[in-house]
């Protein structure tokens, strides 16, 4: 009975209903697009940053992540990698070897970070070949070849075709030194990496540091960014026989993760502003409706309708309008987020974040972009309608009919 009366009242004052629903519809649509855009943008930035550099998940020897050491290695890494690759959600994996050293060209010298990598695996996992600004990729068939970061090449005043002398310490205590031909210049987009990066094939690096069949890190790329949490557990089970630690990107890239979380807090501020606009609009129209219908509520009470039924009547009217607004807004929100997820938005000038340039950003269609705005609109509309509903339920029949 209450629902039937409320439904009839909603369509009786069409102009007021349209104004109220437009407020809720606009709030829902703005919130839906805001959340979809925020989630899509952050997912795109996180995927670019992790996929193209650090990986989604890293596997190390116990304690390596906290205190890196030449001696904390993953033994028999190929079998470990095969076990990881057998997991369905793993897209690719790549082994890496790290060490510090000194590079010199003539009278110029600089401290370097030596990175040994498997060219084929690294290209598949992090698209390393796309970071080579000039020259050729590393090849296992050719030994004693190296790639230099563009900043390091500038410091050493050398280029493709030159030779670099490298000196360091091997794992067996001997002096690690050799001469490498420069075959390419790397531009990662990160200034520090480009000033220190010295890249060798994994085979050459293992030979230089006496670390045959051993590496320091295995980088894992997940096929689905949302599956990283469960995937960490699956990898831990797959490598449980070895003394290895498995870490998601949130642990080994904490500063980047914290920056992402701080940026996302801005989205909640925007959402609060939208809620405030919706709440003020609903309060204004519902209160106006209650004041105009004082006589109606007085008559209902005179006929024996209880205060709580009148209270429920007002809230039901508001929720009917909120539900209609959400249904219409959901259709528009999904459509806009879908179009933005395909075409994105191009920026006049590319944005730089974490050493990477982003020319386009994309939205995302997900449940969050519908559920959060829906709950927000219904809860905020119901809360602000409570005061007018209480006022209506307390209407005195005699006074209401005298006043009108």
Q: If you had to describe this structure to a student in words, what would you say it looks like?
A:
With 404 residues, this protein is α+β, with helices and mostly antiparallel strands. The protein has 2 domains: 2-50 and 257-403, no CATH class; 63-242, no CATH class. It has 14 helices and 14 strands. It has helices at 2-12, 14-54, 77-85, 119-126, 150-156, 191-196, 202-208, 228-238, 249-252, 254-292, 294-302, 307-343, 368-393, 397-403; strands spanning 57-61, 74-75, 90-105, 108-117, 132-135, 145-149, 163-169, 175-186, 197-201, 214-215, 217-222, 244-248, 345-353, 356-361. It has a 6-stranded mixed barrel, surrounded by 4 helices. The protein has a two-stranded antiparallel ribbon with strand order 2-10. The protein has a two-stranded antiparallel ribbon with strand order 13-14. Strand 3 and strand 4 form a beta hairpin. Helix 11 (294-302) runs antiparallel to helix 14 (397-403). The protein is elongated and about 105 Å long. The relative contact order is 0.18. The mean pLDDT is 86.
Please report which band the strand proportion falls in: under 5%, 5-15%, 15-25%, 25-35%, 35-45% or over 45%. 15-25%
Q: What characteristic shape results from the CA principal axes? A: elongated
**Global structural class:** alpha+beta
Distance between the termini: 26 Å
Q: Give me the Rg, rounded.
A: 32 Å
| Spatial sequence of strands, sheet with the most strands | 3-4-9-6-8-7
Q: Quickly count the helices.
A: 14
Average predicted confidence as pLDDT: 86
Any idea how many domains?
2
- Please mark out the parts with pLDDT under 50 across 5 or more consecutive residues, or reply none: none
Main sheet attributes: strand count, strand direction, barrel closure = 6 strands, mixed, barrel
State the share of residues found in helices, binned by percent. 40-55%
Oligomerization category of the chains in this entry: single chain
Number of strands: 14
* Sequence of secondary-structure elements: HHEEHEEHEEHEEHEHEEHEHHHHEEHH
